[in-house]
Amino acid sequence: MKITKPEELKQYPEYQEALVELLFQLADDDFILAYRGSEWLGLAPHIEEDVAFSSISQDTMGHAAMYYQLLEEIGMGRADDLAHGREASERRNAILLEEVNGPGHYLQEPRYDWAFTVVRNYFYAQAKKVRIDSLKNCSYEPLAQVAIKINMELYYHLMHWKTWFVQLVNAQGEARERMIQAIEKVMDDFGGVLSLGNKGSKMVEFGLIDSEEVLTERWIQAMKPVFEQANLTMPNAFQMKRGNGRNGEHTSDLESAIATLSEVYRMDPLAAW
Amino acid sequence: MTVITSFERLSEEEKHQRFMERIEAGEKIEADDWMPEEYRLTLIKLISMHGISEIMGALPEKEWVPKAPSLRRKLGIMAKVQDEMGHGQLLLRVAEDLMAPLGKTREEIMQDLFKGDLKFHNVFHMPAPTWGDAGLIGWLVDGAAIITQTNMLDASYGPYARALKRICAEEVFHAQHGESIILALAEGTEEQKEMIQGALNRWWDALLMFFGPDNASTTGTSKQDITIKYRIRTKTNEQLRQDFFTKYVPRILSLGLKLPDETMHYDETQGKWVYRQPDWSQFKEIIRNNGPKSKERLRLRELSYRNNAWVREALSCSSAV
Fold first, then answer.
1. Which residue of A has its CA nearest to B312?
2. Structural domain spans, chain A
């Protein structure tokens, strides 16, 4: 089955339900991670990285906007309202991506953790790459088209984070130690990034995306050589220690992020800004 | 070869003479060319201050990047602040080339900033408490920057002139981005309109000070005579401020905003804008890092520099391998 236009979805309510769920996962993941990236602005390890990282965050925010736009076309509400107006419990992003960048606030005493940022972004970018490759064959044509666009930018994001990862894990002393700790921390919640949530089996059945198991295996195959070359043990457990964000389970980090990112929007959600 | 040898034989005075002839003929000086010490030091000070101001200038707007009220505005302001960091990088590289013969690097620029020896622009010491300020910075601060930078587009130092060309082209987009935020607010609710009037009132004096004092008697020092002598710039501070008024006062009024200076008017006989002077003693305090947000923003930059020291260390080790 191929669906080429949003109007055709009305005949297939179950299909639409699975598609909407998937789109919220994709949109909310990119939106919250781009937000975390924007908090780093001006605080990156050097000026060149500040320029590169903010470019990646901007792309990622653009990807979120494209997914929210698809949801708007399906009749789920205005893209801006979907991005700014939903409560934490309505969000479908992985818990790993909502986590704060480190101690402190982006305007006061930020002591952000670059090792955690590199590992989270690299592992996520690879998982996103696996998903995007699968989505290029999505039965919902408009989503397949978006995946092709995103794939072009994603190539550079993945290369960027991989370069950082390889450089820092191969450096001696403090850097390698910090990176190993960051890998452990990321793994505690990485299962949530790979999860498709409660409606995952429906997404697979309708040809929207490959199964969680297939995607996870592809992620492992892509990462294995990198781990081996760096003489690191490949993680074998992808946990969700704090719950599954795909099913609306979240932490207070997401609540405070939403309060900040929608502060101006909430002054008057009906006004034009 | 003979040309080089003969130039080497000239006395310092004759070299200086040749140098002045070159710039007066409109020639561009390049990084490896002979230049008077005063010229080099003036450029280092000017360009490193410009570069570091772009980087510190990202901080007041950065406050509003995560909070921008729509997806479109989030994307716009992210792109804008990224450009500013890019300008900072471009300019620091120009400054680094000039500093190299003196054995100095970017590390010294950062340390001078933290010590307070390297100043950053007065406007970036000011608070930006509302979304209206985010719009106003893009519209009028970038608008003012376009005016001062356009004045140096034909600077005698080639690398700086070329960097400014690129920067000015992007600043035009920034001013449009800012203007678009301001227009949306100006057409919006009463609260939104108050937001921009409040921002204009807050930023007015800082905008006037942006162009620097009229002459050295106001604040004790002014580099404008030296930079004009060396053809780095053409117009004086006051001429630039007048250009700013001519361009922006009508636009401010057309949005239904009130000028925060009721004495301000255009004097036909003098052919210039008459306005109330800002408090220049406050200007001196601000650029000594005693402005309302000076310490807080320097703290952010210094903390991130220290916090990431391990990363720079790891990079320098791995590149040595």
1. A45
2. 11-267
